[in-house]
Amino acid sequence: MSLNTTLESLTKLEYDKTKLEILVTKSSGDLGVDEVVTNFVHEFGDSFRLTVITIEENSATKAWNAGIKASRGALVMVLPDDVHVHPLTLTRAVGHLTGNGKLAAVTYPAVPEGFNGTNRPSLLYRLHQLRFDQTVTTVRAVSVVTVYRRDYLTLVGLYREDMGPPLSIHEDWELGSRICRHGYKILIDGTLRQVHSVPVEVSSQENKSKNESQSKNQSNALYVLKSYSSAYMRRDASSFWEVLKSSPIEQILEYLGYALVPLTILLLVTTNVLFAFFFLVALFLVAATTALVKGYYRLFGWWERLAYPFVILSIRVFRTILAFAFVVLKARNFINFRRVFGRRVSDEKPRLSGAPGSS
To answer: Which tens digit of pLDDT belongs to each residue from 3-33?
Structure first.
């Protein structure tokens, strides 16, 4: 899937075409966009207004912000260039937004290209995007395709341009948290499938042709945890703290609770191992019940519908601990720098003042 496919899907939106304006934002080095746009204008130029905006850097958030600032409508839909948009996306969003003044955005999750409900995408895709498939609920982060009220977005602020690909993750979560902190809501509608150009799965024959050691590493839980931890500490932990700065108080308290989970388990283990076991069972039941009430993971069997929420909770606990560890390491490095710098200064020999030859 490509920009050409994305643009073609926009022409099939069941919405008044005279009210639509397509804004394509590209970096100055992205030369392939011009040819796609030229072909689109040649074919659909009489039906659609299309404008190309050029920015200097290859930054997703800067590109989205440039498009939002240049838009003129009351609603603005933000999406990447590798998504096939469902024809009812805009109409459904308008229906949700009409009459609900607290709703700032309607967002849509995506399914991988070629997904038919029976094949299995990657675990991360199942945990996050497919959690909302066939579900309508409120969330604190925007997803792949999002329709915003433009004036609300201007009020709370646009995407953080120091976050997002290729710099870091959490730009969607940070913006969503900021929207919620201002008292507005985000609705996610998983009943319309947006198609994302990520592979559904890799066949066993293709797996065999890949590097065997890489396949073993990717299936090794310890290797995955190590890789995730290294990447998070190196690049993404700082953006986690930016999210918390933008969060409503209830989300801050939620993540403080995640940070206390390992300490609680350790305390209970030192008291009575059975207490720790019952605490874990309680966490599992709370996570599973919450997910069932909200209608998460409807695509999957009962075992996965019960297990995946606990996996998500575990990831959040682990991510929070990594973020705290990041702060501790930063503080320790700063203290060590101060010690080394102070030692160097104190080791310097004092120089005698006075003019040459003076006594």
So the answer is: 889 999 999 999 998 899 999 999 887 778 8
3-state SS assignment for residue 154: helix
Nearest to 175 by CA among 155, 190, 189: 155
Task: Work out the angle at residue 185's Cα, subtended by the Cα atoms of residues 182 and 189, and round it to the nearest 5 degrees.
Answer: 155
Rounded CA gap, 160 and 130, in Å? 26
CA–CA gap between residue 43 and residue 8 (Å, rounded): 10
Mark 270-298 as b/e (b = at least 16 C-beta within 10 Å).
eeeeeebeebeeebbeebbeebeebbbbe
Element (H, E) at 10: helix 3-11
If 0-12 CB within 10 Å is exposed, 13-18 middle and 19+ buried, where does residue 358 land?
Answer: exposed
Separation CA 58–CA 27 (nearest Å): 5
**Distance from C-alpha of 230 to C-alpha of 239, rounded to nearest angstrom:** 15
For 200, half-sphere exposure in the C-beta direction (CA atoms, 13 angstrom radius) is 12
Q: pLDDT digit string (tens) for 264-323?
A: 999 999 999 999 999 999 999 999 999 999 999 998 999 999 999 999 999 899 989 988
- Contact, 146 vs 75, CB < 8 A? no
Q: Which two tokens stand for residue 152?
A: 């609300």
- By CB atoms closer than 10 A (0-12, 13-18, 19+), residue 110 is buried
Q: Tokens at residue 163, please?
A: 């976050």
**Are the C-beta atoms of residues 40 and 33 closer than 8 Å to each other?**
no
Is the whole-model pTM more than 0.85? Answer: no
Q: Cβ of 116: how many Cβ atoms within 10 Å?
A: 7
**Domains of the chain with CATH codes:** 3-196 (3.90.550.10), 211-343 (no CATH)
Report residue 221: phi and psi, to 5°. -60, -40
**Residue ranges in the chain assigned as alpha helix (H):** 3-11, 32-44, 60-70, 89-97, 123-128, 150-156, 171-181, 204-209, 212-219, 221-231, 237-245, 249-271, 273-294, 302-347
Residue pLDDT, tens place only, 187-246: 999 999 999 886 555 433 444 344 444 444 444 556 666 776 777 777 778 888 999 999
